[in-house]
Structure formats: C-alpha cells, structure tokens
Amino acid sequence: MLLLAIVRASTAVAATPSRLAKRAILADVLRLAEPEEIDLVATYLAGSLRQRRTGVGWASLAALPDPAPQPTLEVRDVDARLERIAAESGAGSSARRDAALTDLLEAATSAEQQYLRALVLGDVRQGASASLVQDALAAAFEVPLALVRRAAMLAGSTASAARAVAAGGQAALEAIGLTVGVPVEPMLAAAAPNPSDAVAKSGLPAFVDAKLDGIRVQVHRWPGDGTTGAAGADEVRLFTRSLDDITDRLPEVVAQARALPESTFVLDGEVIALRPDGRPVPFQLIAARTATTDAEAAAGLPVALFAFDVLHVAGRDLLDEPLHVRAEALAALVPPELTVPREVVTTAERAAEVFARAVGVGWEGVVVKRRDAPYAAGRRDSAWVKVKPRHTFDLAVVGAEWGYGRRTGWLSNLHLAARDGAGNLVMLGKTFKGLTDAMLTWQTAELLARESRRTASTVFVDPPLVAEIAIDGVQVSTRYPGGVALRFARVLRYRDDKTVADVDLLADVAALSPVIDGS
Ligand SMILES: Nc1ncnc2c1ncn2[C@@H]1O[C@H](COP(=O)(O)OP(=O)(O)OP(=O)(O)O)[C@@H](O)[C@H]1O
C-alpha cells in the first residue's frame, strides 16, 4: 500500500468530527491493506510508529528537502527505512541517521513529508486513536468490536490484533489468549475529585487501595527452559505501562518475583522505594532509578514491587474473574508486606477516612475499585477510580506565550510564579490547561493591557494577574529559580479580586514535597 493512502485517510479523518465517519474512512483503508502490512497500516493510522524511538528530533526535521513530484513510497518501505534509522548507533550515527532521513523525505511528496514529520515526532493530530482503529478493524472485517479490543490488549497491541484478524478472521481473534511472558495492556483508572464521587462510580462495597506514586510494572514469571539466566531458573520479565521490557533495570524486583511460591504468574503493581521512616520516596527519584542500569546508582535506592492485581496463576487466567476473586488469588501468592495497602469499605464516609489516612502517611491518594469488575485491560473506565488531593494556590501570571493551532491569536501558555520571603515573584512553571475560550479572550486582553516587555513568543506583564491554580504536587527543578516546579498545573479561575500581595508563598507551595522542604 502506498503511504499516500494513509496520508489521505489521516487528512480526511482530521477533517470530520464524526466518529462514525472516521471509522468508515479507516475501515476502507484497512480493507485494502495486504495481510503482511496491515499491522503497519493500523499502527500508522493510529498516529504511531512501530519503532518506539527513532533517535530523530525536532532539529533534524526543522527544514524539509525538496519533495518528490509523485507518490511512490510504500508503507513497508517507510517502515524498513525507519527501522534502519532507529538502529543507527555509535560514532557518526547522528550524521548517518540524518542522511537516511533526508533520503526518506526526498522520496516523499510534500503532503507525505508533513505526515512523516508528524508521525516521527508523535504529533499526528487527526483524532484517530488506537481505540478508533480497533473500531474500524471490527467494521472492516465484520467481527465484534469487543473481540478486537480483547485481542489487542492480550497480544499487547492493536497491530497484533490487526494481523490476526486479517490472517484468520474471528477465529484467529478468539484464539488469542494471555501468554505468560507477553505483556498485556494495563488497566487504567478514571478520576474523581473526591472519595464520595469515586464510590458513586464504583458502587459499594468497594476496594479502596492506596495509590502509590511510582512506576507501573507488570511481572511475568514462568518455568525457565534454561536459555537465559541460571540453569533451570525460572524466567522473569518486567514490563512498564507502555509495555517496554525493563527487566534489567530492576534486579530487586526480579529477585522478589523469584521468591514467590508459584513458578507461573502475572502480577500487576507499582514499583516504589520507601525511606527508613516508611514514607515513600518522591516519584522523580524512582523514575531516575528505573531509567538506569547503573548498578551503583541502583544500589543507592533499592526499590520493591507493591502488587495490586494478579492476571494469571499456575495455568489459570484471572482476567475475567471479578476483583474480589483476583484479590484472594493475590493474597495467596504475595505476602501482605508486598501488596498495596487495601481496605474494603461499605460506606462513602469510610472511603473518605481511608483516603485521608492514605494521604496522611504520604501516599499519592487512593484508587477506588469496583468489587466485581474484571480486569479491563487497556481500558480507562469507572471500575477503577483514582482520587488525589487537589492542591490549589493563588499564583501570579507574570507572562504568557502566544498560542498556536486553534489558539493562534490568543495568549495561551501562562508563566506562573509564587512570592518568596522578600516579596519577589519566583517562576514555578507554565500551563495552558483549564482555559476556556472565554478565559483565553479575557486573559489576552488583560495581559496585553499590562504588557511590560515582549519577546517573539512571550508577552511579560506587570503587574501580574492572579489565578487560582490546581496542581497535583511539586518536584525538584533545576530549570526554575526557586528549585521547585509545579506538577500538572491547570487554571481553575482568575482571581481578579486579588492582587500580587495575595499570591501564595513559594515556601507553602514547596512544602508539598518532603524533599524540597528539607525534611
Ligand atoms: N493501588 C493501585 N491500583 C491501581 N493503580 C495504581 C495503584 N497505585 C498506584 N497506581 C498507579 O496509578 C495509575 C492509575 O491511574 P491511571 O490509569 O490514570 O494512570 P496515569 O495516567 O499514569 O495516572 P497518574 O499519573 O495519576 O498515576 C496506574 O497506572 C498505576 O501506575
């Protein structure tokens, strides 16, 4: 199939808001794909690449070469070229990568060049997600959508489901089961602002788990065939939320899995580290630790898996079992000190108490779980509902960057600052989230009226506006002058009844982090 077919579909999908129309466009393309390439076609249609990383950044794609006059690029050719680009390593690799990229772009028409650039940068804005492509696969091959979704989550990708359905139709989809050693898409959580809204979604009684702020890890163990590891030792593999294999990075978790009393299982959980006083180490440090295979760095911060679910034990798939059955299987497999703190509650009041206690001991919040729900891999629905404390601060808006795309002409990305002890405004982060069109219009006029200076991208203001900002927390920053950066900031509302004297203190914002406040 020509890449052009995908580019055209992507453009057409972006141009219609109707999900049904999008599905029809995608299904037409999927029907035309050869069975050997349908996995790539499905991947590209969802706006992603088969290669997790290509090593190509913005700079290499800033200027595009002259386009080809005619579309000749085949989807499979594009993939093969990207594979070579991604595989480049060692001395001179960046020059070789750029040369191969230029070759690829020279073979592309102008529309294809734009599409390839967006694809490589992960920036295809067409409104087609993996979920929509699954919908289109079901339509194209006339099979139930639920079966496509199930196959995609069990085989770990929509591309694998596409390959199966193109090769063997419904029967091939049905034949896909959980394979220990092959990661399953993790179940995700919806969000609620407080525990009572969460239990309203989940129903009562509900499981209320502590929400641990670490790295999601799926642990697979199965009897070894002696090909890797010590002779006769079981195989263990660890996968992240995006299904990357990080077994080598977390030897303690591998050891922990080997110490459990079964030789075949799949566990889901969160990897964190605890301080000597039992409080959790901040997420940033866990993320840094998980990103390295450096044994010395690893030894400095031992981590452990805290399991919260089990998908398979000793030949028995548990995905379709209700949570309370999986919870029993989990308790039989994993000792309590290696499972997340959990309580079954029967009232909203009790859920609120468990939430307050969880936050009090340093957990990120809670995840409220429906007692009879199966493991909905790859889905974000109300069977799991996360609740985090919402921290709000009144911060100064000291500048704003011009928006682009739909926000062209509006000042959009806000520069946010708190006050230090001397009354100076110290920048802590930026946000363009939470702004309605009416707020964008209002703030653009207000900020321009207060303009003190500007650069090409940013208008700085004096005096600042004051906005109520919600954040999930703070983290240590080397970028911002106060050494503190906001996490997931969003605007709740403007406080034009407040002035800079009402802006919250840097120390109060920083106190959200056990590390930054020095304790
Ligand atoms: N007890 C728990 N049960 C389920 N998930 C948990 C639990 N403790 C921590 N988590 C983490 O919370 C996440 C659930 O939220 P969600 O599915 O929305 O993921 P997310 O987008 O990464 O969210 P967040 O940034 O809030 O962690 C899981 O991916 C997991 O990493």
UniProtKB/TrEMBL annotation:
Cell inner membrane is among the record's keywords: no
InterPro entries: ATP-dep_DNA_ligase, DNA_ligase_ATP-dep, DNA_ligase_ATP-dep_C, DNA_ligase_ATP-dep_cent, DNA_ligase_ATP-dep_CS, DNA_ligase_ATP-dep_N, DNA_ligase_N_sf, NA-bd_OB-fold
Enzyme Commission number: 6.5.1.1
Record field: catalytic activity: ATP + (deoxyribonucleotide)n-3'-hydroxyl + 5'-phospho-(deoxyribonucleotide)m = (deoxyribonucleotide)n+m + AMP + diphosphate
Alphabetized Pfam families for the sequence: DNA_ligase_A_C, DNA_ligase_A_M, DNA_ligase_A_N
Domain ATP-dependent DNA ligase family profile: 296-420
A GO BP annotation: DNA repair
Keyword hit for ATP-binding: yes
UniProt keyword annotations, A-Z: ATP-binding, Cell cycle, Cell division, DNA damage, DNA recombination, DNA repair, DNA replication, Ligase, Magnesium, Metal-binding, Nucleotide-binding
Top-level taxon: Bacteria
An example molecular function term from Gene Ontology annotations: metal ion binding
Enzyme type, top EC level: ligase
SUPFAM superfamilies: ATP-dependent DNA ligase DNA-binding domain (SSF117018), DNA ligase/mRNA capping enzyme, catalytic domain (SSF56091), Nucleic acid-binding proteins (SSF50249)
Alphabetical list of NCBIfam families matching this protein: dnl1, PRK03180.1
Family: Belongs to the ATP-dependent DNA ligase family.
Protein name, entry field: DNA ligase
Species per Swiss-Prot/TrEMBL record: Miniimonas arenae
Taxonomic lineage from the root: Bacteria, Bacillati, Actinomycetota, Actinomycetes, Micrococcales
